[in-house]
Amino acid sequence: MAKIAYGPIGMVGAEHVTWGRGLAGAFATLMLWYIGKATYNIFLHPLRKVPGPFVAKFTSKWLEYQGFTGHKTATLHNMHQKFGPVVRVAPDELLFSDPALIKKIYGFKASYLKTSFYTGFDDYGEPVLFTLRDRSLHRDRKKLMAHAFSESTILQGEHLVAEQIEKFLSKIEDQQGTAMDVYMWFRCLTLDIVSSLFMGASFETLDKRDHEYMDSVDSYFVLAGLKWQIPWLIPLTSWIPWARWQHFLGAQTKIYNLGRSSFKDYLERHGRNSGRQDALTKIIHGDKVLPPLSDEQIALEIGSILVAGTDTTATVLTYLCWELAKMPTLQVQLRDELKQAILGYQDKHVPKYSDLKFLPLLEGIVLEGLRLHGPAVGSIPRVVPIGGDMLGEYFVPAGTTVGIQAYTTHHDPTIFPDPDTFKPERWANGGTREMKDASLPWSKGSRMCPGLHLATLELKAVLAALSLGWELSLGPNMKDDTMDMIDNWVLMPKGNFCDIVFKPLAV
Ligand code: HEM
User: Fold this and answer.
1) What keywords were assigned to this record (predicted)?
2) Cross-strand partners of 402
């Protein structure tokens, strides 16, 4: 009996032992592989001589972790201070700070492609202008879309931009004398402008003060980072019935669905051949030679434009208001410049862009805002092409990820003396050749931001309208660290708000 009773249990025990041994063997093999790889990365790797934090020499986890702290850009900037102009930030990733390399890595003729990081932004496996990595596919997509972003198309919609800014001014009027969170209001404003221009109708977020899109976009960049850096996490956890997690996971889908519904509404309202000169009709009709984009591709592009074109501009506007609020003398100087340039200005209206475009102080303020508070000042990753390349004093093998942080070139004291200080006057006469070469707020080359004409118009028009009608000061809740930089790919203020008090100017 005893034998019969113990037989099967003994067999199961033997299986356990076998399983246990198997697992231990697999673990040991994994460890050996890991130690072998780490040893190779530290002692034999072609990049072994490049300085950098020790942990980054053998694992990319250190860099990935920085991405989740919200301080990646600042930490990597400090690494440059410690290790010099080239830093090995992961076994196969280098960061450079020499502006002379900007052209080589990002310039029009550069053959450095975007890394696989960008696929994290694709939700339906269908890439968009921002995420296309293949050079010729990107060139064709750009041809189909470039005219929608051109300065002349944007200027045809200038009245739509002004309409939204005037609505924003009326909100200031309602709240004059009390603290107003401009970060939230600028997000509403830029969303209403982009939807007016690209979707044929404003989302009217300024009236509703909220939009389902708003919190989705907060999660959008974090989600893209997670999808790329920990690809197994999302499939493994997508079943968890925790509402906040589900909400977070659905952020990209929500934005792309918004793109779809906006496009559907547009077609119902205007059709495909309305003759409208707006950006969306231009995208629908595409180029003379290439076949037009499919409806699905257009809808996805709209979702992507919503993200690319709202928080970016809103962040710079927020930081510019903050800088102005701290500098009453600069406000007076700007107001004087505007009053001299715009004869017959009507109170509470938005000046015409043609009156603003070339005003030197306004230009200096915008450029200084983009230098110190550009929303995408972290490293923009690219892959070294086949054959490898000499970058500075190092030969860098093909496939290595390289990048330059605008934050670091923008803080180079040899180019921008007293780099932490907001000094619009440093841009007098357009700034020096070195300043222009080191400026990277829009990136450079074929992947440069196509939204810069719209963004510049928005920045100048809003600043001008505010300066002409209002005196700005900081709200009582603003602390020293409220506006510290948190970066989730796109920069945001640590406090997640920026309170400004607007006092009407005596007419
Ligand atoms: C102050 C505002 C803005 C700044 C500083 C900014 C900055 C940038 C930067 C640095 C890139 C390159 C990113 C990379 O290569 O990874 C970029 C790309 C892009 N931006 Fe902007 N952006 C702004 C506003 C806008 C606006 C208003 C729009 C659209 C209405 C827009 C649409 C795009 C698109 C579609 C791309 C992808 C271009 C491509 O890969 O070919 N951006 N932007």
Assistant:
1) Heme, Iron, Metal-binding, Monooxygenase, Oxidoreductase
2) 94, 382
Which amino acid is it at 78? N
Give the residue numbers of the binding site for heme: 449
pLDDT tens readout for residues 242-291: 998 998 888 888 888 888 999 999 999 989 888 877 888 888 988 888 88
pLDDT over 90, % of the chain: 71
Nearest CA, atom 9, ligand 1: 442
Rounded to the nearest whole angstrom, what is the distance from the C-alpha of residue 496 to the centroid of ligand 1? 22
Residue 122 has pLDDT above 80, yes or no: no
**Order of strands, edge to edge, in the sheet holding 499-504?**
179-181, 499-504, 470-474
- For ligand 1, whether the C-beta of 312 sits within 6 Å is yes
* Both structure tokens of 182: 């401009």
Per-residue pLDDT band for 507 (boundaries 50, 70, 90) equals low
| H helix count then E strand count, the chain | 23, 12
Q: Which of 115, 280, 312, 313 to mutate to test the pocket of ligand 1 (most atoms within 8 A of CB)?
A: 312
Question: What is the structure's pLDDT at 94?
Answer: 98
Phi, psi of 426 (to 5 degrees): -70, -15
In three-state secondary structure terms, 488 is: strand
Mind listing the domains of the chain with CATH numbers?
Answer: 2-91 (no CATH), 127-374+441-504 (1.10.630.10)
Nearest to 313 by CA among 183, 500, 198, 466: 183
Lowest mean pLDDT among 126-130, 148-152, 207-211, 255-259: 207-211
Task: Give one DSSP letter per residue of 304-345, joined into a string.
Answer: HHHHHTTHHHHHHHHHHHHHHHH-HHHHHHHHHHHHHHSTTP
- Number of neighbouring beta carbons within 10 Å of residue 176: 14
**pLDDT, tens only, 44-86:** 999 999 999 999 999 999 998 998 888 999 999 999 999 999 9
Q: What is the pLDDT of residue 5?
A: 42
Instruction: Identify the CA nearest to 502 among candidates 253, 233, 173, 235.
Output: 173
Ligand 1 and 194: CB distance under 6 A: yes
